[in-house]
Amino acid sequence: MTREGSTMMTQWSMQQRDPWDPWFNRSEKGKYELTSVEFTVTQLCNLRCEHCAVGEMLVTEEGVSISVEKLIQRLEEVETLTTLSITGGEPILNPKVVKETITPLLRYARSRGIYTQLNSNLTLPLNRYQGWIEDLDVLHISWNYRDAADFHRIAFEKYGRDVTPKAAAVLFDRMMDNARALSEQGVFVSAETLLSPFTAPYLTGMHQAIVEMGCARHEVHPLYPSDFARGMDLISLDTFRETITALLDKRDPSIWLLFGTLPFYPCSENPADRELWLRLHQEKNITVRHDPDGRNRLNVNVFNGEVIVTDFGDVPPLGNIQTDRLDTIFDRWLEHEASKRLHCFCPEARCTGPNLLVADAYYPDTDFQKRRAVITIDY
């Protein structure tokens, strides 16, 4: 992979070999290695979205962070590192976090040739995204709205006090304007839609809005039943399949479409699942990303140092960066019962198995270790 050249070259490079996808490491090395680290750098957020998978962790007052020097020290120990992700909360809400944690981490990653992603709701003034974003590879946003009314209901569902529709509309418009402006500046903006009973019927319209904002990529993922989203209904597998098929039929072929943590697999007994898997691997500008969580990534909480396998899962902390190396913690995870249960691998079909939350939600009684792909992908 190369990080040189224009945004389009970076997009092409990442699309050909998505650096967050554990498929490449597993297929080439014959094992999973720690290639990705995600830092939760804040627990503050100006929104309280109903679908937030870390909502119960959000606070109203920032804690004291572990020094960025300590974080970088632990990254230095990971020789296999290729990607770094930054998440929250809203990472850029606190200027101190941007200055003392985010900017040094991004500059360290660039000096080492590591791809970076930052998750933001993009609702803050545009100037808050200047001065550091030139060191970022992917600006990741959520897009689960048809209009300002949707945003008002969804983003402030758990806020705890009334927010006027007018105030919400200001943030919604700013989010769209920021996405357009940053995309025009050459920033790689990737917009993610979580499929739920609310978003599924309107996915193609949301896709068109993402295209009109100039985003480089549209990501489609399941709704993760965690934290605030734990009580939300999941769509059925049939509805999920029908929704994706409709999007494929009506998508803008010029934009990169990424499907992550899909609940469909090449070992399925359902022919429709297998046909969809084949189509997703045959059409241009479409990729299927296998789940980094639990295969090549760990999440670090910069306030208490705890390391978990995902920032919205139920697996208890596996270690602490105050005392443990990250690669040691990752080796510990590979011996975990949950890891062994899900780490199946079918190279002929380009599949590394299910996501932990998705498997528990849709396939609670399925032993994926006893299944095998019945189709082959040419790649």
Automatic annotation (TrEMBL):
Domain Radical SAM core span(s) in chain numbering: 29-258
CDD domains on file: Radical_SAM
Pfam family membership, one: Radical_SAM
InterPro entries: Aldolase_TIM, rSAM, rSAM_sf, rSAM_YfkAB, YfkB
Keyword annotations of the record: 4Fe-4S, Iron, Iron-sulfur, Metal-binding, S-adenosyl-L-methionine
GO molecular function, one term: metal ion binding
PANTHER family cross-referenced by the UniProt entry: 7-CARBOXY-7-DEAZAGUANINE SYNTHASE (PTHR42836), PROTEIN YFKA-RELATED (PTHR42836:SF2)
Protein name per the record: Radical SAM/CxCxxxxC motif protein YfkAB
Protein species of origin: Marininema mesophilum
Organism classification: Bacteria, Bacillati, Bacillota, Bacilli, Bacillales
